[in-house]
C-alpha cells in the first residue's frame, strides 16, 4: 500500500508516482464494491476510475523522469484520488444511519471529486502518447463525461431525508411517525427489523454525533440532535424502562395540579386558548381561524389596535404555539396521572365518564397514548373487561388505540392478568363487541410474542373462523387478517383446520418442509371431517399435495398420505376425483411392491374400496368414471386377493362387489370370470374365517345373479353348509340375501340337491320366509332370493325335495307372496308354484269307488275338479287347494311381462292333463280367460304363444267359444297376419274352432286400423260383402260392421245400416253421436239423441258428454239448456266427464255465468274442467277472471297454459302473453304444442321479440311442428313484422304448396310495410294466378256497383301537440279546403320535378 500523501513528487520519478497512483485507484475501485450507501453513485465512480487505469498505464510505459506539466497533472490526480479513496472507505466503515442521513453531502463530494479528476485528466500532455488517436479520443471522451457528471441521492435516501426534515420542522411527529421513519431507514440500509438490531444501530449513530462534537462540528451536532430527538420517539430506539424513567422524571417535576393558561395564550377575538396562533402585520397574535373569519367578514383593521392590516400577511407564531402545546402537554400529563385512581374507585357511571375522557385524550395525540401506557393503565383497563358491555366496548377501543404502533403496550396487554383471555371472550359476544375485540387482537398480533399467546387461548381460533364468515364485512376482514397473522404457527393452522378453515393447512401441505407436510397430513388423517369439509378440501386442491406423498420414499410419509386420502375418499365426488387424478395406479403399485407394512396395505385396500363406492353415484351429463383404467388393473387387483391378509382381502372383495354394481359392471364381471373368480370365491366361502364370508358371499352372488358365472365344478358340500350357516347365523340382512341368492342360482344337479337336503336347507329357508322381522333396506332382496331358493328346491324332477318343501309350508307362503311381494318375488313365487303344480296330476290320489248296495254305500269322496282325485297342498301340491288361482289371475294383469308369463305358466298347468274341462271351468270361474285373451296383444311373442296355446285348448269347447270368442277374434286375426309362422298356424287353429265362414272374410277387414294396407274403396267393398253375407245368412255382425264403418269413416252408409238394425243399443247410439260430433254435422247429434229418447233408450253419462259437446258448436244455447234439464233428472249429475262437457258448452256459448255456477257446484274437478272455464273467460276478454282461475289450479297442463297465452294474445295483451309463455318454458313437465306456438308468435310479432321467435322456430323444427300450417304462417308473420324479410321469404318458400290465403296475406303485407311495393304487387299477382280468383274479383266489383255499395274512405292521422287530427280522402268539408288542395297540388308538382324524387319505392327503416 502506498502512503496517502506524496510529499514531494519531484523527488520521485514520474513513473513511480504513476504506479502509486494506479495502486490507489485500484484500492478505491475495490472499496467501491463494499460501500453501504449510494451504491449506484460509487459504481459510476468506479467505472470512471477503471477507464483511467489504461491511460496511466500507457503514460507509465514512457519512462518519463520529470516533466513539469505532467508533474502538476499527476499531483492533482493523486490528491483527488486520495479524496475519493477516503470518502469510499468512510462509506464502507461508518454507521449506516449516519451515512444515510449524510447521503446528500456524500453525493455532492463524489460529484466534486469526479469533476476534479476529469479536469486533471484534461491536463495530460497529448504529445507523450505518440499520437495514439484512439487513446487521445478516449481521454477526451472521459474528460467530458467526468466534467459533466451529476451524482444524485438515491430515491429512498431522498425520501427519508425529506421525511426527517418534515418531522423536525412540523414538531408534531408522533411515535407512529418515528416508527415508520425508522422502518424506512432500516429497509434502505439493510438493517434487520428486530428491535435489538435497530437499537444497536441507533446507539452507534449517537456515537457518531459524539464524535462530531469532539470534532467541534457544532452545525452537524445540532442537526443530529434534532434527528435523534425525532427518532427517539420510535419504540426500537429505547427500552421501555428507559422511556419510563424519562417520563416519570419529567412528570414529577411538573407538580400535581394543572396550571391555568397564560393571558397570551388566549385569542383576543374568541377568548379561547389558541391552537394555531398567527401574527398579523400589526404584530398582534390571533387564532388563525378567527382572524381569517374577521377578514372574510369585510374587516381590514386590527381588532385590538384598529390600525389597517395587510390581510395577506399571517405569520405562524411557532414559539407561542410551542409554548401552548407544552402547557397543554403538562396539564394532560397531570390529568392522565390523576384519572387512573378514579377508574379503580368510581361507580359505573363515573368509570364510563373517565373512559370517554381517556379515549378522547388517546385520539388527540399519540404521545398521550404513550403516557397512558407508562402510567400503567393497561392492567386497570383489562380488569374492567367485566360484566358491563358499555364499559367493555370502551375499554376495547382504548386498548386498541394504546396498542397501535406500540410494542410496549402490546407486551403489557399480554402480561396483564388474563388480558388476552378476556379480550378473546369478547369475540363470542354481540357483533359490535366482537368487532372491537377482533380489531384489538389484530393490532396485538403484530407483535411476535403476543401473536403466539393469542393462538394459545382456548377457543380463540374457532371464534375467529366463525367471525371470518360474518355478515359484517369489517369484522370478517379483520378476522381473516388475524387468522393470517396467526398462521405462522403450525399448531394454530391445525386449530384453524379443526374449525373448518383449511386454507393455511393446504398452503403448508403444498409448500411446507417435510416435517410440516407430515404434520398437516396427520391432521387430515385424524380429523373427523364432515362431508362438506371433505368436498371443500378436494375442490381446493388437496389431492395435488397428497398424491405425490403416496409415492414418497419415506414410509411414514406414505402411510400418513394414504390415511388422509382414506379419510377424504368416502365422499363420491372426491372418490371420482381421485380416480381421475390416477390414485388407483399408485395404490396398486403399493399393494404389489411394498411388502413391509401390513398396516399400509390395509389402508390402501380400504381406500380402493371407497373409490369403488364412489363410482356408484355419478352425475348425469359427465363422463363416467371407472375404478379400473384397463383390464390389466382388474386382473392385477384380483390377483392380490390371495397374497395379503384378511383385512386387505375384505376390502378388495368389497371393492369388486361395488364395482360389479357400477355402470361398468358388465365388463368387470366378464374379466372376473376370466380371472377364475368363482373358484377363489367358493374357496373363501369354505374357509372357517367368518370375517371374510360377508364380502365373498356378496361378490359371488353378484357374479351368479344373471348366470354370469358357472359354479358347478367348484361347489362342494362344505360350500353349501357354510352358505346355510351364514343364512342361519348372520345378522347382516344383505349377506343373508346374497347367500340365499347363491343357493337359488345353484346348478340343477342331483348331487347338489342331495347336499341341500343333507344340510337342512328347506327348514332354514322356511324359517327365513316365516320370519316377519325383516325391515332393513335389503328386506325385499332377502325375500326375493329366498323365494328364488324355493324355486331351486321345487324343481319338478326332484319330488323328494318338493315333498319336504310342501310339508314345510312353503306353498302357502308362495301364495302369500303372490299378493304382497315385490314384482320379482311374485314372479319367482309363480314360477315355483308352476313347478310344484306340474306334478299334481301324478301325485293326486284316485277316488275310491263305493262297493255294496247303493242304499248302504258310504258317500263318495269329492275329488279335485282339475286333477280328478284327492288333492291336498302337502301331498299333491294342488294350486286349487292352495287358493292360488285368484292371486295368479291378478298377476296376469301386471305390467311386468315376465311376471305375467310366470303366472300364465302356473295357470296352464291346470289344463295340462288329459281332462281339460275341469281346469278350464276353474279358469273361467276365476275370471282368468279374459286376461289370457288380452295377452294376445302383448309385445312379448313368447307370451302371445303361450296365451294362444291356452286358448286353443279353451276354445275346443263350444260354451267357452261362444262366450269368449268375440273378445279374442280381432287379436287372433291380427296374429294370423303379423305373427311368426308358428303363431300364425296356432292362431288359425284357434280360429278353426270358431265360425269358419265368417273367418274367411273378417280377418281382412279387422286389420284395417293397424295396417291400413288397402284403399278406402277396397275396404268398403269388403265391408259391403260382409254386410251382404250377414243379410244372406242371418248372422248378426251389425255391431262389428257399424264400428268399422265409423272408423273409415263412412257416415252415410253407417246411418243407413243403423236404420236397418232392429235391436239397437245405447252403445250404438253413442258411437253414432260421437262420430257426428267429430265429423259433423252437430245438429245430427241432437237428431240422434231425440230419436234415441223417443224409442225408449235411456241416455247414459257418455251420451250426455257427447251431446253437450255437440251443443257447444251450435249458435243457440236453447238446445243445450234443454238437455241440461234432462241431464239433471238422469242421475248422472256426478259424472266428471259429463259435467266438464257441460261447463265447456256454456263457456263456448258465452254463457259464462252459467258455466261458472256449474263449475262452482262441482265437488270434483279435473284439469279439463278448469281449462274449459279459463278458455271461456279468455275468449270473452275477461282475462282477470281467467288468470284468477289459472293461479288457483294445483296442476296445470299444456292446454291450461295455452288457453291463457291465446287469451292474452287474441285480446291484444301481447306482453302478458309473452310473459306467460316464458313462465311456461320454465315448467319442466310442460312442453308447448303447436297451438301454444301459434298463439304466442303473434305476441312476438307485435312486440318485436325476435330472439324469442327464433328460439320458438328452433323448438318447432326439433319437434316437427312446422308441418302445422298455423305455426308456419305465424312464424312467417313474426319475421315479416320484425323486419326480417329474408327469413319471411325463406318460410314462404318452405311452406310451398300448403300456402293458404293467410300465408299470401302475411307475405304481401311484410313486403308492402317494409317498402318493397314492387315485390308485394308481384306476390299479389302470383296469388291471384295460383288461386284463380280473377273471376271472383270481377264479380265482387260488379256486385258492389249493382248494390250501390262504396268502399269505405281511407283516412290518415297527424299528431299536433297533444291532439290527433283525422284526414279523410277527398274530404272538402273544411272551410279552407280550396286553399289546402292548392297547396297539396303545388307540393305534388315540386315532388315530381326533376332532381327531387328519383325512387318513390324507397325502403323505410324501423
Automatic annotation (TrEMBL):
What is its pathway? Protein modification; protein ubiquitination
Each PPR repeat occupies one of these ranges, namely: 1065-1099, 1166-1200, 1268-1298
Transmembrane portions of the chain: none
Question: Where does the record place the U-box domain?
Answer: 260-334
Q: What is its EC number?
A: 2.3.2.27
Which UniProt keywords are listed?
Answer: Coiled coil, Repeat, Transferase
> What's the protein here called?
Protein unc-45 homolog B
What is the originating organism of this protein?
Dillenia turbinata
Which lineage is the organism of this entry classified under, starting from the top rank?
Eukaryota, Viridiplantae, Streptophyta, Embryophyta, Tracheophyta
Amino acid at each position: 500500500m502506498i502512503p496517502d500523501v506524496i510529499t514531494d513528487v519531484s523527488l520521485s520519478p514520474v513513473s513511480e508516482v504513476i504506479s502509486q497512483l494506479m495502486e490507489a485507484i485500484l484500492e478505491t475501485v475495490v472499496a467501491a464494491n463494499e460501500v453501504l450507501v449510494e451504491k449506484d453513485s460509487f459504481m459510476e465512480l468506479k467505472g470512471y476510475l477503471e477507464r483511467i487505469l489504461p491511460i496511466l498505464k500507457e503514460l507509465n510505459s514512457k519512462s518519463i523522469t520529470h516533466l513539469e506539466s505532467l508533474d502538476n497533472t499527476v499531483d492533482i490526480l493523486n490528491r483527488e484520488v486520495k479524496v475519493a479513496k477516503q470518502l469510499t472507505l468512510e462509506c464502507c466503515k461508518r454507521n449506516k444511519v449516519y451515512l444515510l442521513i449524510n447521503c446528500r453531502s456524500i453525493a455532492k463530494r463524489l460529484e466534486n471529486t469526479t469533476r476534479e479528476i476529469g479536469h486533471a485528466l484534461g491536463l495530460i500532455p497529448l504529445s507523450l502518447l505518440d499520437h495514439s488517436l484512439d487513446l487521445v479520443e478516449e481521454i477526451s471522451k472521459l474528460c467530458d463525461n467526468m466534467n459533466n457528471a451529476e451524482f444524485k441521492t438515491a430515491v429512498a435516501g431522498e425520501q427519508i431525508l425529506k421525511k426527517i426534515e418534515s418531522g423536525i420542522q412540523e414538531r408534531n411527529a408522533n411515535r407512529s411517525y418515528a416508527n415508520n421513519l425508522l422502518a424506512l431507514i432500516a429497509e434502505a440500509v439493510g438493517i434487520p427489523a428486530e428491535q435489538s438490531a435497530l437499537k444497536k444501530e441507533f446507539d452507534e449513530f449517537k456515537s457518531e454525533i459524539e464524535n462530531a462534537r469532539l470534532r467541534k462540528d457544532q452545525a452537524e451536532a445540532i442537526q443530529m440532535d434534532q434527528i435523534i430527538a425525532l427518532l427517539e420517539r420510535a419504540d426500537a430506539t429505547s427500552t421501555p424502562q428507559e422511556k419510563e424513567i424519562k417520563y416519570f422524571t419529567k412528570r414529577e417535576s411538573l407538580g400535581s395540579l394543572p396550571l391555568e393558561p397564560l393571558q397570551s395564550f388566549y385569542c383576543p377575538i374568541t377568548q379561547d386558548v389558541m391552537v394555531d396562533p398567527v401574527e398579523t402585520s400589526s404584530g398582534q397574535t390571533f387564532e388563525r381561524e378567527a382572524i381569517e373569519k374577521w377578514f372574510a367578514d369585510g374587516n381590514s383593521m386590527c381588532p385590538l389596535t384598529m390600525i389597517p392590516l395587510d390581510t395577506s400577511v399571517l405569520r405562524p407564531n411557532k414559539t407561542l404555539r410551542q409554548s401552548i402545546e407544552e402547557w397543554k402537554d403538562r396539564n394532560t400529563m397531570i390529568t392522565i396521572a390523576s384519572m387512573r385512581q378514579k377508574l379503580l374507585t368510581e361507580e359505573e357511571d363515573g368509570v364510563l365518564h373517565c373512559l370517554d375522557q381517556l379515549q378522547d385524550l388517546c385520539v388527540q395525540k399519540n404521545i398521550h397514548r404513550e403516557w397512558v401506557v407508562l402510567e400503567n393503565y393497561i392492567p386497570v383497563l383489562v380488569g374492567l373487561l367485566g360484566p358491563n358491555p358499555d364499559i367493555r366496548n370502551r375499554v376495547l377501543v382504548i386498548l386498541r388505540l394504546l396498542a397501535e404502533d406500540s410494542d410496549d403496550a402490546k407486551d403489557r396487554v399480554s402480561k396483564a392478568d388474563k388480558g388476552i383471555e378476556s379480550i378473546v371472550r369478547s369475540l363470542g359476544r354481540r357483533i359490535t363487541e366482537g368487532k372491537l375485540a377482533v380489531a384489538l387482537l389484530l393490532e396485538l398480533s403484530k407483535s411476535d410474542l403476543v401473536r403466539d399467546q393469542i393462538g394459545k387461548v382456548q377457543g380463540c381460533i374457532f371464534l375467529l373462523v366463525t367471525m371470518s364468515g360474518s355478515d359484517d364485512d369489517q369484522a370478517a376482514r379483520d378476522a381473516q387478517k388475524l387468522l393470517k397473522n396467526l398462521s405462522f404457527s403450525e399448531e394454530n393452522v391445525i386449530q384453524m383446520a379443526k374449525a373448518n378453515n383449511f386454507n393455511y393447512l393446504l398452503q403448508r401441505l403444498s409448500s411446507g418442509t417435510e416435517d410440516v407436510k407430515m404434520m398437516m397430513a396427520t391432521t387430515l388423517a385424524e380429523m373427523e371431517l364432515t362431508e362438506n369439509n371433505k368436498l371443500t378440501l378436494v375442490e381446493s386442491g388437496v389431492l395435488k399435495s397428497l398424491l405425490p406423498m403416496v409415492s414418497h420414499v419415506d414410509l411414514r410419509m406414505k402411510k400418513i398420505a394414504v390415511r388422509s386420502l382414506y379419510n377424504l375418499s368416502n365422499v363420491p365426488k372426491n372418490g371420482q376425483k381421485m380416480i381421475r387424478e390416477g390414485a388407483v395406479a399408485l395404490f396398486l403399485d403399493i399393494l404389489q411392491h411394498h411388502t413391509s407394512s401390513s398396516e399400509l396395505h390395509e389402508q390402501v385396500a380400504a381406500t380402493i374400496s371407497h373409490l369403488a363406492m364412489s363410482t356408484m353415484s355419478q352425475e348425469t351429463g359427465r363422463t363416467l368414471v371407472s375404478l379400473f383404467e384397463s383390464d390389466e388393473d382388474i386382473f392385477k387387483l384380483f390377483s392380490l386377493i390371495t397374497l395379503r391378509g384378511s383385512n386387505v382381502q375384505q376390502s378388495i372383495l368389497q371393492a369388486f362387489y361395488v364395482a360389479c354394481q357400477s355402470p361398468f359392471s358388465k365388463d368387470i364381471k366378464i374379466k372376473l370370470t376370466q380371472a377364475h373368480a368363482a373358484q377363489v370365491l367358493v374357496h373363501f366361502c369354505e374357509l372357517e374365517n367368518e370375517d371374510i364370508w360377508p364380502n365373498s358371499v356378496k361378490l359371488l352372488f353378484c357374479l351368479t345373479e344373471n348366470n354370469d358365472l358357472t359354479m358347478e365344478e367348484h361347489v362342494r358340500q362344505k360350500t353349501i353348509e357354510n352358505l346355510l350357516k351364514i343364512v342361519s347365523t348372520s345378522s347382516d340382512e344383505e349377506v343373508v340375501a346374497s347367500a340365499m341368492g347363491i343357493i337359488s342360482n345353484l346348478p340343477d344337479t342331483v348331487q347338489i340337491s342331495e347336499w341341500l337336503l343333507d344340510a337342512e336347507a328347506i327348514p332354514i329357508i322356511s324359517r327365513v320366509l316365516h320370519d316377519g322381522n325383516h325391515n332393513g333396506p335389503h328386506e325385499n332382496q332377502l325375500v326375493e332370493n329366498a323365494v328364488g331358493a324355493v324355486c331351486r328346491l321345487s324343481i319338478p324332477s326332484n319330488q323328494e325335495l318338493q315333498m319336504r318343501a310342501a310339508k314345510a309350508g312353503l306353498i302357502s307362503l308362495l301364495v302369500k307372496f303372490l299378493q304382497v311381494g315385490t314384482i320379482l318375488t311374485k314372479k319367482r313365487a309363480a314360477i315355483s308354484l308352476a313347478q310344484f303344480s306340474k306334478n299334481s296330476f301324478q301325485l293326486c290320489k284316485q277316488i275310491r269307488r263305493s262297493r255294496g248296495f247303493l242304499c248302504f254305500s258310504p258317500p263318495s269322496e269329492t275329488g279335485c275338479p282339475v286333477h280328478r282325485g284327492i288333492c291336498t297342498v302337502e301331498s299333491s301340491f294342488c294350486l286349487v287347494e292352495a287358493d292360488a288361482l285368484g292371486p295368479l289371475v291378478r298377476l296376469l294383469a301386471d305390467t311386468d311381462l315376465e311376471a305375467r308369463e310366470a303366472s300364465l305358466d302356473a295357470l296352464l298347468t291346470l289344463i295340462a292333463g288329459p281332462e281339460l274341462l275341469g281346469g278350464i271351468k276353474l279358469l273361467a270361474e276365476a275370471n282368468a280367460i279374459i286376461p289370457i285373451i288380452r295377452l294376445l296383444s302383448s309385445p312379448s311373442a313368447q307370451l302371445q304363444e303361450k296365451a294362444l296355446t291356452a286358448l286353443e285348448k279353451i276354445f275346443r269347447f263350444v260354451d267357452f267359444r261362444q262366450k269368449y270368442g268375440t273378445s279374442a277374434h280381432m287379436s287372433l286375426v291380427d296374429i294370423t297376419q303379423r305373427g311368426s309362422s308358428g303363431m300364425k298356424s296356432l292362431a288359425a287353429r284357434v280360429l278353426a274352432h270358431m265360425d269358419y265362414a265368417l273367418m274367411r272374410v273378417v280377418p281382412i277387414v279387422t286389420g284395417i286400423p293397424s295396417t291400413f294396407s288397402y284403399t278406402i274403396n277396397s275396404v268398403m267393398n269388403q265391408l259391403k260383402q260382409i254386410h251382404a253375407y250377414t243379410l244372406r245368412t242371418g248372422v248378426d255382425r251389425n255391431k262389428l260392421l257399424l264400428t268399422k264403418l265409423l272408423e273409415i269413416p263412412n257416415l252415410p252408409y253407417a246411418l243407413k245400416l243403423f236404420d236397418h238394425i232392429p235391436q239397437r243399443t245405447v252403445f250404438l247410439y253413442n258411437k253414432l253421436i260421437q262420430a257426428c260430433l267429430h265429423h259433423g254435422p252437430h245438429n245430427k247429434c241432437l237428431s240422434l239423441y231425440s230419436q234415441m229418447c223417443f224409442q225408449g233408450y235411456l241416455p247414459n253419462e257418455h251420451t250426455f258428454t257427447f251431446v253437450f259437446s255437440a251443443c257447444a258448436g251450435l249458435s243457440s244455447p236453447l238446445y243445450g239448456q234443454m238437455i241440461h234439464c234432462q241431464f239433471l233428472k238422469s242421475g248422472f249429475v256426478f259424472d266428471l266427464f259429463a259435467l266438464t262437457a257441460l261447463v265447456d258448452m256454456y263457456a263456448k256459448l258465452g254463457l259464462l255465468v252459467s258455466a261458472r255456477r256449474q263449475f262452482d257446484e262441482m265437488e270434483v274437478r279435473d284439469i279439463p274442467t278448469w281449462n274449459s272455464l279459463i278458455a271461456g273467460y279468455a275468449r270473452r276478454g275477461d282475462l282477470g277472471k281467467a288468470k284468477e282461475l289459472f293461479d288457483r289450479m294445483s296442476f296445470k297442463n299444456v292446454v291450461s297454459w295455452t288457453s291463457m297465452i291465446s287469451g292474452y294474445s287474441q285480446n291484444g295483451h301481447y306482453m302478458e302473453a309473452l310473459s306467460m309463455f316464458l313462465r311456461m318454458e320454465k315448467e319442466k313437465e310442460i312442453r308447448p304444442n303447436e297451438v301454444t306456438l301459434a298463439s304466442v308468435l303473434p305476441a312476438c310479432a307485435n312486440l318485436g321479440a325476435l330472439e324469442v321467435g327464433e328460439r320458438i322456430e328452433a323448438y318447432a323444427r326439433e319437434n316437427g311442428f312446422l308441418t302445422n300450417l298455423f305455426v308456419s304462417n305465424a312464424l312467417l308473420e313474426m319475421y315479416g313484422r320484425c323486419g326480417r324479410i329474408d327469413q319471411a321469404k325463406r318460410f314462404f318458400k318452405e311452406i310451398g304448396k300448403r300456402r293458404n290465403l293467410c300465408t299470401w296475406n302475411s307475405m304481401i303485407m311484410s313486403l308492402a310495410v317494409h317498402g318493397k311495393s314492387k315485390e308485394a304487387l308481384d306476390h299479389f299477382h302470383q296469388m291471384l294466378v295460383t288461386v284463380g280468383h280473377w273471376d271472383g274479383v270481377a264479380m265482387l266489383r260488379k256486385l258492389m256497383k249493382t248494390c250501390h255499395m262504396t268502399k269505405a274512405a281511407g283516412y290518415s292521422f297527424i299528431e299536433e301537440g297533444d291532439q290527433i287530427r283525422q284526414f279523410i280522402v277527398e274530404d272538402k268539408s273544411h272551410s279552407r279546403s280550396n286553399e289546402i288542395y292548392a297547396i297539396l297540388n303545388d307540393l305534388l308538382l315540386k315532388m315530381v320535378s326533376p332532381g327531387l324524387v328519383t325512387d318513390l319505392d324507397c325502403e323505410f327503416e324501423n
